[in-house]
Amino acid sequence: MVLNERFRKIYKTYAEHIRSFNIAQAGKWSVMFVLIGIIAGLGSIAFHYLCGLGSHYFMDMLAGYRPPPPAGEQHLFHPTSTMFNRWVLLFLPSLGGLVSGFLVYQFAPEAEGHGTDAAIDAYHRKGGFIRARVPIIKTIASAITLTTGGSGGREGPIAQIGAGFGSFLATKLNMSDRERRIMLAAGIGAGVGSIFRAPLAGALFASEVLYRDPEFESEVIIPAGISSVIAYCVFCLVFGWGTLFEASPDIVFENPLELGPYIVLAFVLAFTGFLYVKSFYGITGAFKLLKLPNHIKPAIGGLCTGMIGFFLPTTLAFGYGYVQQVLTDPMSMTITALFLLAIGKILTTSFSIGSGGSGGVFGPSIVIGGAMGGVVGKIFHNIMPGIVTHPEAFIVVGMAGFFTAVSNTPISTIIFVSEMTDSYQLLLPSLFVCSIAYVVASPWTIYKKQVKNRVASPAHAGEFMVDILQMIKVQDLIHLVKKVESIPQNMPFLDFKKFFSRTKQHYFPVMDAEKRMIGIFSSTDIRGLLFAPEIEHLVVMQDIAKSDVVTTTLTEDLNIVLQKFTIKNIDSLPVVQEDDKGILMGMLSRRDVIAFYNRQIHRLKGSSVS
Question: Is the pTM of this model over 0.85?
């Protein structure tokens, strides 16, 4: 009884200590992640309002162009009576590109392009640091680009708004690079999850988009989840609850024979994704080679976008509403119209963003994937109507499969599309198509700043090095432990000089009469005596040896060994027996340890590539 009571008291003491520590830590972090969510949600509200304002005054009032919204959104302003004018629409994206280009290249050049890549790069290579002005410039420039007809998405600027505030907050609180990276990623998840009304997907996307392999940044998921839910709630309190798209609840997967057409869809999406990536970065590279001021290039890209939009207005701006039309009424667009929408959207996005304009690439991917899904679905519906009964299901699955093909984010994309369309009944075909599309399209990605996996991330280089070093024991390097000639403690220095002249050793263990190591010295330690002939006949090697020997054993790991190498800046360590430090087994050199570690890294990277 006494013993049990004592254990209960000990447990209570430690439990209270641990509980209070965790609550304090969790409370501090929760407050910060909630704050990031609030700011990201407010940023999404501001950006959405700016886009509505710009669309009203630019596309509607000037060009009479009023693209339909998705079911979950409505026009924020009443339509004007302006008649549709293709000629205004031809030059409007160029004007927007000119203003956007000036803002970006004058105040924040890193805000060019599609935003998410910049946040990924900041996570891996910049310690999570983003300049405070970047989100502001990105928001304004993207709103101008997208509401003057430029083709792009909203996730890029929103990701930078959330990521920028997370980075700013961590910097002001003097947090570590690791903590800043987590807060940056939480901001990405919050921004994306709120603007697309998909909080779960936003959290998963923030942790998955960092890598090309199907790998998650585990330490990011919970923080991003908290921030994403808060941001989603803030956004929906203003613009209403519900999903971005509306799909019929009758669209279900219930015929295994339908997997055949879905396989075809996966390959079509992978090939279209290849065209998208090659077009995007081909045009980006071409604009970089132009010998013109950078702020002019988005205007040229906007003019090219306007030329395509002159003939295919559906390819301008966001384009979500056209996908919604086909989801609601599959007969509202023909196969040809859907195909032209997909190809045209690839080109307008490449010119709008690749020229240096500002906007995201996820939004266009949803339109392109949905359109190509509609093409395949309609074709198979015409061929085998008894099997493909709902071609609009291919639109939903096409959204998920296409973005997976260009972003290497299969899991978060499946959840994204399910949340955006409220079509969880299509999870099975979405998983099937996304898995195939990922495998086929894995060699390319729209996010060039992604790294292959945690091993390849500069953000985790130190952690990974320590992890690997701790896994390797000196026992694993026993073949590299070299036998050396020892020196008797009473050997006169004059005799050692003769021995030294014919050896290549640099470290010399000193032994007593029982062959036990009592000290060690290096070639550097005897340098002074070599030029002091007046005393060399008086010295024996025990006088030179250092008795405070730094040693290692077979059970120690290489992390400890490397630390010991750096204590006194030595190049070789005596390896001694675990139970008797006086028995020398051999010497282990720093060079051999580093070479062995490099071989292990090369082997691990090689296996991860294969």
Answer: no
